[in-house]
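This part of the workshop introduces the protein records we will be handling. A record pairs a protein's sequence with a compact description of its fold. As an example, a complete record with its sequence and its structure tokens follows.

_____
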Amino acid sequence: MNATRRALLLSAIAAPALAQGMPRRSVDPGVTFPEPGRRPWADSIPVLRIGISGGENETDRLARNEPYRQLLEETFRLPVRLYPSPDFAGVGQAFAAGQIEMAQMGAANYAGTWIDTKGAIEALVSAEADDGTIGYVAVMVTRADSGITDLAGMRGRSLAWADPASTSGYFAPRAALRARGIEPSTYFSRTGFAGGHEQAVVAVLHRQYDAGCTWASGQGDFATGYSRGALKVMVDKGMLDMRELRVIWQSDPIPSGPIACRADLPEAFKEDMRRFFLALPKTHPAVYEGIERGGGTGFRTVTHADYALVVRLREEEAQERRRRR
């Protein structure tokens, strides 16, 4: 795919198409949390299995998702289990194998899984940023004392990607760099996968790489790691002082990935889950904070149409890889 084509696609991704009709939003009046009780759909789902993507250490992931698990269990009166994956691709593989019913995913991971499973997953809701958009940004960070202040200063330096299935930690920044005529494989002295977003930042702090890619809201106070994102999580956990880092590049907005489920599940299940997430910020703010890791106005309903361009970009990337073989 040529640079012009890639730039047009990335520009379009910045304003994803909404599904037919107006989306439902957490901030809408009259949003109500599902009433507790066992549902008829539970007969076909003996255990609700939730995939948890990589990006931070497993202990922290399980701890902050435990109240979410308990609330699902208490609300729908069925066993709920968390299945943490060591990386982003593991969630897609679990969907493909029928090992999970639902998971929160990045846009590129959703798109890749949708392609690999031939449409066997369905997007339900996505998180809204503070300004009401369903977007965030990829950022490239260096140590503040590195002397690197922009992309030009990264020529011949090393770069850590977060994860090969991460939108902000690999897929979007690589595509954006290529759209600017920068081929990562030759522009940087070396690139590698750190194993997650936290790990990419830690690799920079420990001077294992000159820069790393991760995600942030791009909104709010820089000193706190912005309003949400991997940097904010690390600041909140005492792992990072933002004075140690410098942001040298930021992407155009990326559509926030969805909370998705298996497409073959009952429609009543999907609607109960939409209601659960839409009402979550107001009825159970601590649980919402735990799974969203920062600010935002809540969720909005999405469909596959919101990610059509991301799917197209992934398909074109796959075609490029096949041509290079």
